[in-house]
Structures are given as structure tokens and as C-alpha cells.
Amino acid sequence: MNQITTQLNRIIARLKLNEKLSKVKFIREHGNHSAEVNLTEFLAVVAVTDTSLSKKFVGDYLFPTVKGERFVAKVQIFVYAPSSENGNGLSEVTCEILQGLKKADTEKIIYDTSVSAIDFDNDMNAIYRKVEFTMEFCLCEEV
Asked: SS3 for the chain, per residue?
């Protein structure tokens, strides 16, 4: 899981450099943050929802001396709108995140990006949208 976390942290750090996302606070799901009520700024909660690891030879017959581990992680970013905004700006922020992922993905490991419809979270008492994507990368070593 450390490799997945490392790759995701790099992507989120690059995403946060986007000036249009300066008013968005990024936090990790299940982190050390307490749940916020009555949001005063956009909140993006980053969650790894599914992971898999497979050990295989890279290129199978072409490179049988190179062994690798293939990591796949499904990621969701829940973007909550401030309660005072009634959802205004939510679509713009989620689209900016979606577009920003292209720049932030310098390793070209992200695919299957999407944004969900607007929904309401009763627990947070806030309107939100989900940005979803899959990361896939390989760590290789010679055998």
C-alpha cells in the first residue's frame, strides 16, 4: 500500500499547485481530521476504494528476466461544496480537478477518469460530486 500512497500523494500534491483549486482543502479519508460540519470552503476527501497487486513477468516471453509487481488502485475524490454556496461552483471545481489530473499525472498512470452527478450527503449535510479514476503502475526489478 505504501507505493500506492506514494503515487497518489504525488498526484494530489501536483493537483494542489493549480491556482484555480486554491480554495479547495484536500484531506485523506480516514485521516487525522475530524468531520467538518457547515463547510466554509470546498472540501475534497481523497479515498482509495480498491487495490490489487499482481506479480508477473513484464512482457512475459519478451523480457523473462524482468520481474515486476503491478499495482492497481481505484481512487475517489469526494468534493463537497460549502454550505453557504448551495452547490454553486461545484461543477467548476470538479471539472478543474478532472482537467488538472491530466497535468498532475506526469507518470501517465491514470485512466478511466469520471465525474459523478451532483448528490447530497446527509451525514455531512452537504452537496457533493465524486471524481473517480484508476491508477496502474509497475515496479520492476531484474531477476
From this structure: CHHHHHHHHHHHHHHCCCHHHCCEEEEECCCCCCCCCCCCCEEEEEEEEEEEEEEEECCCCCCCCEEEEEEEEEEEEEEECCHHHCCCCHHHHHHHHHHHHHHHCCCCCEEEEEECCCEEECCCCEEEEEEEEEEEEEEEEEC
Residue extents of the structural domains in the chain = 2-142
pTM above 0.85, yes or no: no
Using pLDDT thresholds of 50, 70 and 90, give the confidence band for residue 139: low
**CATH no. for 2-142:** 3.30.2000
pLDDT at 35: 57
